[in-house]
Amino acid sequence: MQAIGNWISGGVALLLGLLALLVSARAHDDYIYSVGLIVAIACALFVMNMVKQAYDEAEHH
Hints:
Elements: H1 2-25, H2 30-60
Helix pairs in contact: 1-2
């Protein structure tokens, strides 16, 4: 059941990251541009951490 939650949170992070990139691309203000990029990078790091945890967990079995 934990795997389904990981897939859902990964999908939400993916959609949030893509939305942040879209907002950043259409921004007319430097602040909004920066926040969009920071959120997109944070989402990418979150997903990469989830992948790392999955491999670490599989290695222990």
